[in-house]
Amino acid sequence: MGQFENLSFTIRPIHDVKEFFEVSELEKIIWESDDPVPVAHAVTSVDNGGMIIGAFLDDKIIGFQYSFAGFNGINTYLCSYLLGVHPEYRISGIGEQLKLAQCKEALKIGYDLVTWTYDPLETVNANLNIKKLGGVCSTYIENYYG
């Protein structure tokens, strides 16, 4: 971790609408896109079984994890949709901490399964999901992200 050894950040669930807008702005920075998850959609998702967890350095959001409720016709689960860390703080361990907090929160609110997708060609993401977090890939869907 080197330069991030003394980085002291806080991780907590987000419920404040102002912070939902901050997440939206962070999405634009991370993915260089003007098409983030709509704030109203995120708020509704969180109010109905989803969650957004933020990583904060002082009062500035530097990472987030967004999940929504899923249902496959038989079971409910948490569907992990986005995990992003500000480019200045990548490889700091924040992504892993956000995923661990997601697991803890999911169990606390009653989920016993979290699913997520990832692109196996994105090696940093694959390393986090499979190697570090112990995820199991059981399905491959070609061209999932278009």
Structure overview:
This protein has 146 residues and is an alpha+beta fold. It has a single domain, classed as Gcn5-related N-acetyltransferase (GNAT) (Aminopeptidase), CATH 3.40.630.30. 34% of the residues lie in helices and 25% in strands. It has 4 helices and 5 strands. It has helices spanning 17-31, 39-47, 94-108, 123-132; strands at 10-13, 51-57, 60-71, 76-85, 114-116. Strands 1-2-3-4-5 form a 5-stranded mixed beta sheet, with helices on both faces. The protein is globular, with a radius of gyration of 15 Å. The model has no long low-confidence stretch (mean pLDDT 89).
- What is the number of helical segments per DSSP (H or I, 4+ residues)? 4
**In CATH's first tier, which class applies?**
Alpha Beta
The CA-CA distance between the termini, in Å, is 33 Å
Strand elements, count:
5
Name the CATH superfamily assignment: Gcn5-related N-acetyltransferase (GNAT)
- Summed up, the domain count is 1
Helix content: 25-40%
Label the overall shape: globular
- Can you give the mean pLDDT? 89
Query: What strand line-up does the widest sheet have?
Result: 1-2-3-4-5
Structural class: alpha+beta
- Give the SSE order as H and E letters: EHHEEEHEH
Radius of gyration based on Cα positions:
15 Å
Percent in strands: 15-25%
> Are there runs of 5+ residues with pLDDT below 50, and where?
none
Largest sheet: 5 strands, mixed
Q: What is the CATH third-level topology name?
A: Aminopeptidase
CATH architectural category: 3-Layer(aba) Sandwich
Protein name: GNAT family N-acetyltransferase
Organism: Lysinibacillus agricola
Domain N-acetyltransferase: 9-146
